[in-house]
Amino acid sequence: MLPKLEEFDYKVDVDSNMAHKSLDRFTEELFEVLEARVKAYRYLWEESDWDVFTFVVTGTDRLMHFLWEAYEDEDHDYHSEFTEFFSEVDDAIGEIRSRLGPEDSLTIVSDHGFGPVHTSANVNSYLKEGRIPERKFRRYREEKPECDKGGIRRLCPGPGSGIPQYGIKIPKRKRLGKPKQRANGRAGRILFGL
Description:
mainly alpha, 2 domains, 7 helices, 2 strands, about 5% strand, disordered C terminus
C-alpha cells in the first residue's frame, strides 16, 4: 500500500503552520492533499468489496480555521479558493454517492461546527517559549475526562486519541461572560496576557 500512497503523493494532513507563513502555499497544499486523498479513495474502493468505507477530509477543518473570513467576505483574496475547495469536496462526495448500491448508505459526519475566531492562542507555543508556567496546567486522566468541571477546558482530543489532555484552571474571579465569549479567546488574554 505504501508504494501506491507514495505514487499519489499522499500526505496525512496539510502543514497547518504553512498558513502562518504563506496562505498561497497553504491553499495550494490543501488542494494537493485533497487530490491525493481522492486518488487513494478511488484506488482503495476498487481493491475490495467493502462493508464499511470511510473517506476523511481534514482540509475543510484546516481551511475554516485559517480562512473563515474568506468564506464570509466575497471580496476576500482567498474567497474563490475557499469556495473552490468546498466544491471539490462536494464533487468527491457526489462521486462516492454515485458508486453506492441500492442497499448502501452514505453518512456524512463532522466533529464540530465553525464560525469566526476573533482571538486564538497556541498553548504549546507559549509553553515552549516559557511564556506560561507549566504549573498553570493540570493533566487530567483518561478515566476522568470531565472537561467542564472546576473550570477545566479541553485543549486536545479526548480519551482514546492517544494525545495527552491538558486543561487550564480558570479561577471564577477571572471568568468572563458566556462560554462562547471564553472560546473566542478572552480567557487566554486574561491568563496569559495576550
